[in-house]
Design brief:
Blueprint: E1 3-8, H1 14-26, E2 30-35, E3 41-43, E4 49-51, E5 54-55, E6 66-69, H2 75-81, H3 83-94, E7 98-102, H4 105-110, E8 120-121, H5 128-133, E9 137-138, E10 143-146, E11 149-152, H6 158-169, H7 172-181, H8 184-188
Parallel strand pairs: 1-2, 1-6, 2-5, 6-7, 7-11, 8-9
Antiparallel strand pairs: 3-4, 10-11
Helix pairs in contact: 1-6, 6-7
């Protein structure tokens, strides 16, 4: 079973965090939500409180197949301000293991850490300059994959982003089955 850690900071974008968690758990992945605050309850950008599975200090992220950073502001800035999150992300990427970020997080976290240097990536419109300043090629796509890094544009990208990573880590067949069961494929046929 593939192991995923989702880092949650106060101000995270609700759907960018919870849609991937839902899709990946439906697809059989072992997903652990991680609070980087002083409490297990983390508040989203829209005032929804989520109780995480573990606190950051309880995690040993060396067993991760994927480390994921949702976007939202100030969520992305709060992730970048956390030295432990930054170290875990850098170590994961350096090991050639999968890292994913959506919305502001590719620009606010991954780019300044050097993870996107020389890679194609996307992010929420308005943050693309940070990608360019840090050596990334901005695509403007809903979802961009370059090697071990997957980036998503914003809230509307949450479903295709989640299915893409499910296909990478489990199988395309599983991702397609989950998408069909959630009626996503029906939506895309309209």
């Amino acid at each position: 079973m593939k192991k995923v850690y989702v880092f949650l900071a106060d101000g995270f974008e609700d759907v960018e965090a919870l849609i991937p968690v839902d899709v990946w758990r439906r697809g059989g992945m072992d997903v652990t939500t991680v609070s980087i605050t002083d409490f297990p309850l983390v508040q989203s950008a829209h005032g929804v409180s989520i109780e995480t599975d573990i606190m950051f200090e309880q995690g040993d992220f060396s067993d991760a197949d994927l480390l994921f950073l949702p976007g939202g502001m100030p969520g992305a800035s709060n992730l970048y301000a956390h030295k432990g999150v930054c170290k875990a992300i850098v170590d994961q990427a350096a090991a050639g293991k999968k890292v994913a970020a959506i919305c502001a997080s590719p620009a606010v976290v991954l780019a300044p850490l050097g993870i996107l240097d020389g890679k194609r990536a996307t992010c929420y419109p308005g943050f693309e300059q940070a990608l360019a300043e840090n050596g990334a090629d901005y695509t403007g796509d809903l979802c961009t994959v370059d090697g071990n890094v997957t980036t998503g544009e914003g809230p509307a990208a949450a479903f295709p982003f989640a299915y893409e990573l499910l296909a990478q880590l489990v199988s395309k067949q599983t991702a397609d089955q989950i998408a069909e069961g959630m009626r996503y494929k029906h939506l895309m046929q309209k």
